[in-house]
Amino acid sequence: MKLPPYLILLFWLLTSAGAYAQISGDSLQTDSLTQAVVLPLSEDSARRYEPVKPNWTYVKSYWYDTKAVVTSPFRWKGQDWAKAGTIIGVAALSYAFADGRIQKFSQEHKSHFTNTASEIVDPLGNGRYLWITSGLVFLHGQIFHNDKTTRVGLLILESQLINGVLGQVVKLAAGRKRPWDGARPHEWAGPQYPPFHSFPSGHAQTSFALATVIAEEFKDIKAVPIISYSLATLTCLSRLNANAHWFSDLLVGAAMGHFISKTIVRRHPEHPLKKRSKVALDFNGQGATLRF
Prior knowledge:
Elements (H helix, E strand, L loop, with lengths): L4 H31 L20 H16 L6 H31 L3 H10 L5 H17 L3 H28 L27 H16 L5 H19 L5 H20 L13 E5 L2 E5 L1
Helix pairs in contact: 1-5, 1-6, 3-9, 4-8, 5-6, 6-7, 6-9, 7-8, 7-9
């Protein structure tokens, strides 16, 4: 299987950004230590770098993170339910009124340009390519002792696996027929063999899972989240162009990929917050005492 050239570019960008992030992190740690005795310690300077490592704790995290993802609705608050309700509402409206119209529009406006663009971004939603790319990023971290690229590679691997499993469970249970099957928007077969795999979109879920991990890990570089989510969106549009999915499939798949991966990243904090440190100077009859 030939690796697309731009995925090789993605590997290069991730490893370069990882090297930059590690150097910046080391510099920040040194600055914090030198300033701690004269300034109040901020939340950032009270954090400690704890990289994800390929050990038994990481392996066990697959089970605990999957459990956390599946049970997360029981811990949602008002804002979380508002986000979920908005996504479900938009997907439901698309399903009821727009899926067929959007599919028709996308097919009527296909061109050589849209086909070429779709072929370029399509691998971003193909798990086979991303397993290879994330594995190479991880190996880079191990070979060059770079904690950041090790962490990013492992988080991408975990997010792809968990998203893949949960996505397939929903696909098999739903059994929605694809547009290219000649189906209408409201045709569902349910669990059966051979199965139908339209809902949710695996490409949308995979691309947004990747985009979320990269955006969260390199959010200090302002352009990274914009580029990541833009490429993921283009990947979704490529599936419309290919007549592979309905628009509501893409909305739900993208939302699943984003929120599942965000949950995973947050459960592996790179800089865990500790109790806020304070510096106090007490004066007494015998002199001054510095308390931390």
